[in-house]
Write a structure and sequence with these properties.
Blueprint (H helix, E strand, L loop, with lengths): L13 H13 L8 H12 L13 E4 L9 E7 L12 E8 L10 H9 L3 E2 L4 E2 L4 H7 L7 E11 L5 E17 L1 H9 L5 H20 L8 E6 L6 E6 L3 H24 L1 E6 L5 H13 L10 H6 L6 H10 L7 E6 L7 E2 L4 E2 L10 H15 L5 H6 L3 H28 L6 E10 L2 E9 L5 E5 L12 E10 L4 E9 L5
Length: about 500
């Protein structure tokens, strides 16, 4: 499930912050870095291994949430010139700079060992628990505007349809010119004030979305849960935020790079791929039943990917269905190969081979993927430290991702419990989006308002919960101390608003 963005406002957030702090202790989240790691990070920040190639003349920009300072990627988009040094005429050239964490982290050192212990940055509503010390992740290694930084600079040329015609990646010094956010990018594109490198994000993004559709891939625009202070300042509410089109266009540039990286690895014969098996037919059949109950139009013979693309996440029953569609993405993992490419090399949601390589400040595996791609382009063998670590990375990443998912799930439950604790006994409108196969009276519901996804449990004698149906539910438990939120059926509405 995509990460759900929850932010505890500064005012009157003491109780929530105390509860979140206790949750981190219970989950054994490693918040403090050992002294040796911090000392190595300070030394690395002062003396990074800067590349010889100077690409600071490329006017890169970043697109991230407004408060983000751990900036992994910066881009520049241009039209093809058709000359010997440019992309095909009518096509595009994508420059995508990825923070070069290996310029700061010495294999086998204290920083490296700590990154393998943490595996991934953990996001809580009140703070980040970073993979690397902040002096690197939000400072010397982050692609902050106006700063020279070491990076892996990708150059990907596309033809007029958005298909890749050439790929290269090299170490280079880069300098971002601007830190943009999604809402600002969307506004400037919509009102026609965006400069061409930003305006092309829509043009290229739409082409890549079309290619994704043609190959059978899917991108889930699941609404995010956000905590907001009430307009009168009296407490907080949970609301859904539907992703902007710019979110999806930006994601397509990252997907493009991950697919190009996977292609390089497969051709070189050594790599680590992000893989996902195709969802079983039973899962698609089950979604069909949910779609019918939610009155989501699913014409006979239409692939589920086309149905997903037709949904509007701002509509409650579409949002509920999108939440249920995340079940199709379960089972993703990492596949290492050294020699022939693996038999099952595809990521089913991408509908192509794909790898994680664009977020090395926040995810361990991306640093290794970057090194594998550099070696592939140079026609060289990967560094020994990369090859030695490859066999263990899938297990490390699986355990780290599981820990991150648990932290996300429990902190969302905690926030929901804290905001609902004074509303026990109230009745809400909801959709039933999942059932426990072993106990059909237990499942998951998606509330219309507030933005809550929670458990529901019927009495033992009650009938099976109506999967996909609109249901009136009563809040029976909301305990921040145990991060518990529980509902029970109140009344079946029998219709979808």
């Amino acid at each position: 499930m995509p990460r759900r963005h929850l932010l505890v406002p500064a005012a009157d957030g003491t109780l929530l912050r105390d509860a979140l702090r206790a949750l981190r202790v219970r989950l054994e989240v490693p918040e403090e870095f050992p002294a040796a790691v911090l000392a190595e990070a300070r030394q690395a920040a002062d003396h990074p291994r800067m590349p010889e190639l100077d690409a600071t003349g490329i006017p890169l920009f970043t697109i991230d949430p407004p408060t983000s300072t751990d900036l992994d990627q910066a881009m520049h988009l241009a039209r093809g010139t058709g000359t010997g040094t440019g992309a095909p005429a009518g096509g595009y050239r994508v420059h995508y700079a990825i923070a070069d964490v290996a310029a700061f982290v010495t294999p086998g050192g204290a920083l490296d060992a700590e990154a393998h212990r943490r595996v991934t940055t953990l996001y809580f509503p009140d703070e980040r628990v970073p993979l690397h010390p902040q002096i690197l992740s939000e400072g010397a290694a982050s692609l902050l505007p106006g700063q020279d930084r070491p990076a892996l600079l990708w150059r990907i040329d596309l033809d007029a349809t958005g298909q890749v015609t050439a790929t290269a990646v090299r170490r280079a010094r880069v300098r971002s010119r601007a830190k943009l956010d999604y809402a600002g990018v969307q506004r400037s594109i919509d009102d026609g004030t965006a400069e061409e490198p930003v305006a092309l994000l829509k043009e290229i993004g739409l082409l890549r979305e079309g290619l994704e559709r043609d190959r059978g891939g899917i991108s889930l625009n699941v609404p995010e849960q956000e905590i907001e202070q009430r307009p009168d300042g009296d407490g907080y509410v949970l609301e859904y935020r539907a992703p902007l089109p710019a979110d999806g266009w930006n994601a397509q540039i990252s997907l493009l790079t991950g697919m190009a990286a996977a292609d390089l690895m497969i051709r070189a014969g050594t790599g680590i791929l992000r893989t996902l098996p195709a969802a079983p037919q039973s899962a698609a059949d089950r979604l069909g039943r949910v779609a019918e109950a939610l009155q989501v139009d699913w014409p006979a013979g239409t692939p589920y990917a086309d149905v997903i693309r037709s949904l509007d996440p701002r509509r409650p029953h579409h949002a509920a269905f999108l939440q249920e569609c995340t079940s199709l993405l379960r089972g993703a993992g990492y596949t290492v190969f050294d020699g022939a490419a693996p038999e099952h090399a595809e990521h089913a949601a991408v509908a192509a081979p794909y790898t994680h390589c664009t977020a090395p400040l926040r995810r361990l595996v991306d640093r290794y993927a970057g090194e594998l791609c550099l070696a592939a382009v140079a026609g060289e063998q990967p560094p020994d430290w990369v090859r030695a670590a490859l066999p263990g990375l899938p297990k490390e990443m699986a355990e780290g991702t599981q820990h991150a998912n648990r932290a996300e799930r429990e902190c969302v439950d905690l926030i929901e419990a804290a905001l609902l604790k004074d509303r026990i006994g109230e009745v809400f409108d909801a959709f039933v989006i999942d059932l426990d196969d072993r106990a059909p009276g237990t499942g998951t519901i998606h509330l219309d308002d507030p933005a809550v996804v929670a458990r529901i449990q019927s009495p033992p004698s009650a009938p099976r919960l109506p999967l996909g149906h609109h249901l009136r539910v009563r809040l029976t438990e909301a305990d921040p101390a145990t991060s518990t939120v529980l509902f029970a059926p109140a009344q079946l509405c029998g219709h979808v608003d």
